[in-house]
Write a structure and sequence with these properties.
This protein is an alpha/beta fold and about 300 residues long.
Length: about 300
């Protein structure tokens, strides 16, 4: 069986804020056997500082910085190398996507740099563009993580949408088996008052029918998740839950309650989930989650209940 991840790309800008990704990246690399490439992309007309620290302005200083980091973490049993893109770029995110493809990386690890109110809807331009343009999974490590604390994966939260992709379930099983982590499968069914978008008018016009459809969705997902639990790998524990409410808020409350070590969610869309940046469920969870999030690109749903037009 192919490893769930074999080559992780970790872009760094020279700041301690970006380095917060390293313990999580190396912890996952240890468990999966993946090798790690540290990447720095030189910028055209770069600022003198980045996040309040001196910026890496030339290839020599960038190579020295990445080499120092690779030696610092050399004793972890992970193969670490580094690469400096020394042709200055205007489009750093595009260069990251290009290097992901060129180097054959199957996971990109980034730290969201957005702050304040902006971060409620966007997670920083580089992660956003990497998600939009690329097809490779992206691991987002929030800036609040302690860069000195080793990463341990003991619990995995997997919020599932109305249409579940087999890719998500397969990846969750592989990760949980490798780390011996408990997997928590979660689906949130809206209530009438939380329906938005295209579903809101129909809910107002036919509330009884809509409520009945939502109840059917809850029942169908209870049965579907029960089947997943029965068929789950015997090497790792799993539990499942269906909640009712506003999906993003319910997921965030569960994150706060259970404090998972990693959250796995899917993204959809022709260009990296446009809806992720349009106040979707995933956007709200990404913007407010204090825990690392692994986002998988899937092109279309492959399994799970399909109930009318009611979607979380």
């Amino acid at each position: 069986m192919m490893p769930v991840f074999s080559h992780m790309l970790v872009p760094l800008d020279g700041s301690r804020l970006a380095e917060v990704t390293l313990p999580t990246a190396l912890g996952i690399a240890e468990g999966t056997g993946a090798r790690v490439t540290l990447l720095h992309v030189l910028e055209t007309d770069p600022p003198r500082t980045v996040h309040g620290e001196p910026h890496l302005l030339d290839a020599t200083s960038a190579e020295s910085y990445l080499e120092s980091l690779s030696k610092q973490y050399m004793g972890r049993g992970v193969e670490i190398d580094f690469h400096v893109h020394d042709n200055p770029e205007n489009d750093v995110a595009g260069s990251i996507v290009g290097h992901t493809e060129e180097l054959g990386a199957d996971l990109v690890v980034l730290c969201p740099h957005g702050r304040g109110g902006l971060r409620r809807w966007l997670i920083g331009s580089i992660p956003q563009i990497v998600l939009q343009r690329g097809s490779t999974p992206v691991l987002l490590v929030p800036s609040g993580k302690d860069s000195a604390q080793a990463f341990q994966l003991r619990s995995l939260l997997v919020p599932l949408e109305g249409h579940v992709a087999e890719t998500v379930l397969r990846t969750a099983q592989e990760i949980s088996t490798l780390f011996g982590a408990e997997t928590h499968l979660l689906h949130v069914v809206p209530v009438l008052s939380t329906l938005k978008g295209d579903n809101a008018p129909s809910a107002l016009l036919s509330p009884i029918s809509t409520a009945a459809t939502l109840d059917l969705e809850e029942e169908a997902f209870q049965q579907y998740l029960a089947g997943l639990v029965v068929g789950w790998s015997a090497d790792s524990p799993v539990r499942a839950m269906v909640l009712r409410g506003e999906p993003a808020n319910a997921i965030l409350k569960e994150i706060e309650r259970s404090q998972p070590d990693l959250i796995l969610m899917s993204t959809h869309g022709r260009s990296g989930l446009r809806g992720l940046w349009a106040a979707s469920v995933a956007a709200k969870v990404v913007a407010r989650s204090p825990r690392p999030m692994l986002l998988l690109r899937v092109t279309q749903p492959e399994s799970g209940p399909r109930l009318g037009n009611i979607k979380p």
